[in-house]
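Form 7-S
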Amino acid sequence: MATNLELDEDFLRILAQLAPGTMLREALDNIVDMGHGGLLLIASEEQARQVVRSGFELHARLTPQRLVELSKMDGAIIIDEDLGEILWANAFLVPDPDLPSEETGTRHMAASRVAQQLHRPTIAVSASRGRISLYYGSRKYVLGDINTLSAKANQALRILEQYRATFDDLTRELTSLELEERVLPDHIANIIQNIVQMLETEEEVQRIFVELGTERELMQLLLDWLMLDVREDFELIIRDFQAPGFQQTPEEIIAEIRVLPSEDLLNTERLMAILGYEAGESWLDEAIPSRGFQVLSQIPRIPMAVIERLVKEFGTLQNIMHASEEELRGIKGIAQVRARAIRTGLMRLRSSLLLIDEGELID
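Output:
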């Protein structure tokens, strides 16, 4: 049976068609509530003819009410791929008997083999257990109970809230260290590890949301808030600290980090190697200068194009901080007002971080 972690995009698209708020899910829930069983195949007419041996050809518009009424007959219901039309009712399906199946019930065995033969979604509703099973190819997936799924999503969101609090703390710490040119490889590794944990948790929540359908709306707002700016900051941090002259793009570096096994993700030396630094422990206690992308992005109304020109001209955040207004005005897109805003913004950022640090010491 497929787990949430094993579901690919194609399978998730099918689950979305069966989520609460859809016509299919309304019909399936009503069939379960009435204590009936059912067998549904989603396929084109040409595909369905490979396994249909008898039944009533309908070509009727699909509605939840019609599906519920037709499920009272013993045979399968065939629905077209666009989910707009019921092609057959009370259909007798005869898939290839040589296809393997671990199912014992007639309805579920037929669903399993049809799904393998046609590679089309086939749904079996158990009358005795009130359970909805989706078969697709060689996979089987039991649709989750809404309350159980909501509980899982809320639990994952609580974990994500903790990760977000850590992310905010690490971001403040990193910004402070960048301004003082005291960033060590461990500081970079810590925030990258935290961001990857957040992204993995978000993906798991999104997979649960697919099944929740319209029931996820309020939780989706919370998820969006928790993930605000995380991806953007990830890319800026990579741009700040990838090794000078390293040819890989930030997107390529992030993709490589995302597929790391857990033990490598927790290895500072391994992460820094992906950022382009040579293997060895001699530099692990050396400060790495920031280019300033992440810090400068915190100053209001400074476009990324201007930040990129600043970094290209001055090279490091420290050089930008020590630049005069006149030197800043030499950059395209920076006039007197913006030059002053950059200098003032950096000073305010440093002052605000000092106040936070002092407040934490008092506490």
